[in-house]
Amino acid sequence: MPEWSKFLVPSAFIFVPTVGGFVNAYAVHAKFFKESEKWYNEDLKKPAWTPPNWVFAPVWTTLYTGMGYASYLVYRDGNGFKGDAAGALALYGTQLALNWAWTPIFFGARKMGLGALEIVTTAGCVAGCIYMFWGINKNASYLMMPYLAWLCLASSINIWVWMNNKPAVKNE
């Protein structure tokens, strides 16, 4: 294996979730930015534990980097997509797709209840990844734990927002 590929392969594993997450967020927010910003920041009641908006980009950059490197470690130590890592990496791909689906559900479609169900499902898949990664590379499991913690926080915010911002029922 050439010396440069020792850095290229892990970088590719980090690149995919990071760029995918930001492209997804940009695409949704670019289309609905002014409406989404006003809706989320001004129209919705949010719990006191909601982080300020400036926190999200650095947190997600860190989390995507960690989860990408974790997937590389599992790929490397589990003999790739056809080895012991195959199931763990399939679950990883599932959670990544679910991760990317939340933004258009919550911000694009403004489906807070569906967003809550989706983010809790994502957290369950991440917990499964932590469990499956453990048998292949313990450090990969550890790298996924902050992501699960963040998803638990985000889930609690999503559920609180959903429960406290239900549309009024019209009497006809």
UniProtKB/TrEMBL annotation:
| Gene symbol of the encoding locus | LOC106154097
Q: Where in the cell is it found?
A: Membrane
Q: Which GO terms describe its biological process?
A: tetrapyrrole metabolic process
The domain of life is Eukaryota
Q: Which UniProt keywords apply?
A: Membrane, Transmembrane, Transmembrane helix
How this chain sits in the membrane, per its record, is: Multi-pass membrane protein
- Tell me yes or no: is Manganese among this UniProt entry's keywords: no
Membrane-spanning intervals of the chain: 54-75, 87-107, 113-134, 146-163
- What this protein is called in its record is Translocator protein isoform X2
Q: Which GO terms describe its cellular component?
A: mitochondrial outer membrane
What lineage is on file? Eukaryota, Metazoa, Spiralia, Lophotrochozoa, Brachiopoda
Tell me which family the UniProt entry assigns to this protein.
Belongs to the TspO/BZRP family.
| Pfam annotation, one family | TspO_MBR
Q: Which organism was this protein described from?
A: Lingula anatina (Brachiopod)
